[in-house]
Amino acid sequence: MKKVIFLDRDGTIIVDKVYLNDPDGIEYLPGVEEALKLLNSKGYEFVIVTNQSGVPRGIVSLENLDTIHRRIKSHFETHGIHFLSFHFAPYMTDSNHEMRKPNAGMLKEASEMHGISFSESWMIGDRMTDVEAG
User: Fold this and answer.
1) Is the pTM of this model over 0.90?
2) Active-site positions?
3) What does residue 33 show for φ and ψ, rounded to 5 degrees?
4) What fold, for 4-115?
5) Average pLDDT of the residues of the chain
6) Contacts by residues 118-122 (CB-CB < 8 Å, ≥ 24 positions apart)
7) Above 90 in pLDDT, residue 134?
8) By C-alpha distance, which of 124, 132, 127 is closest to 36?
9) Cβ of 100: how many Cβ atoms within 10 Å?
10) Could you read off the pLDDT of 76-112 as tens digits, one per residue?
């Protein structure tokens, strides 16, 4: 079983730009690469779990969201950091969809995909919904 750090995206590894739709607008938070390298050296792997209500609002396109995630993945790979997977919940804030944080649907999905040990894993994010999900 893998031990994983589940990471929120906006406000945790990149600057929260509120409905980021432009892949050229990605800004990485200072110190993130070093922090993830340290966690990786302790045997942790990484999974991104991010709510994306901008998709059903028509503000964020699925194509741009995919490009944003590919660029983030590529950026961190140049620093020797690998993400197991990216999971996003394209549902409205008030939907209470099982995949949307604070529900744990994305974490459960990743666990089924990768054989993750929840008892040895952590959730890191910048909002109470992140804490509640993990």
Assistant:
1) yes
2) 8, 10
3) -60, -45
4) Rossmann fold (3.40.50)
5) 97
6) 120/1, 120/3, 121/2, 121/3, 121/4, 121/5, 121/6, 121/44, 122/4, 122/5, 122/6, 122/44
7) no
8) 124
9) 22
10) 999 999 999 999 999 998 889 999 999 999 999 999 9
